Amino acid sequence: MAGHAIWKGHLRFREVDIPVKLHAAVKEDRISFHLLHKKDHVKLKQQMICAYEKVPVQVGEQIKGFKLEDGKYILIDPEDLEQAEPEDSRIIEVHEFVKSAQIEPVYISRATILSRTFRQKSIRCLPVLCWKWICRAFAAGR
Question: How far from 99 is each of 88, 96, 102, CA to CA, in Å?
Fold first, then answer.
C-alpha cells in the first residue's frame, strides 16, 4: 500500500480491538509550482520573520498561539494538544453495520482504505465495499 497512514488506531468490535491504519484511497494529483527568483531561476526559501524585530526566526524558536479578542495570545504546547484529545480518539467502535444507501453523502468526504497494522493468526480479513479490509477477530477465551 503506497503512502503513509493518515490515521492509526484501533477498530473495536465489542471486546475485541484490532490495530488498524487509515490510508487515502485516491492519490490527489495536483500541479504544484515552486517560487523562483526571476533573475536566476533559483528556488526561493520561505522564512518566518518576527513582525516586531524584523529578523528571521528559526524553527526551534517558533511556538503556536491562539489569538484572543484583545490581541493577546494563549500559547499552545504540542504536548498539551495531545493531552486534550478525547480518550477514545484512536478507537473506532463498531456498533452495527448499515447499507451504504443509508449513509448521507454529506458524511462521506473522501475515499479511504482501512487496513490492519500487523498479521496475526487469530484475525481473518473480509473484503468490504468501501474499505479494503475490515478485520474480524476470533479471539478464543476472551
Answer: 25, 10, 6
Q: Which domain holds residue 92?
A: 7-137
Structural domain contains residue 2: no
Q: How many helices (H) and strands (E) does the chain have?
A: 1, 8
**Total structural domains in the chain?**
1
Provide the strand spans (E) within the chain: 7-13, 16-24, 64-67, 73-76, 91-93, 112-116, 123-126, 134-137
In a domain, 142, yes or no: no
- Predicted confidence (pLDDT) per residue in 74-114, tens digit: 998 888 777 776 665 678 888 888 888 888 888 777 778 88
Task: Specify if 65 maps to a domain.
Answer: yes
Query: What one-character DSSP code corresponds to residue 80?
Result: H
**3-state SS class at 113:** strand
Residue 116, SS3?
Answer: strand
Amino acid at site 42: V
Residue found by looking up cell 468490504 in the block: 128
| Residue 1 placed within a domain | no
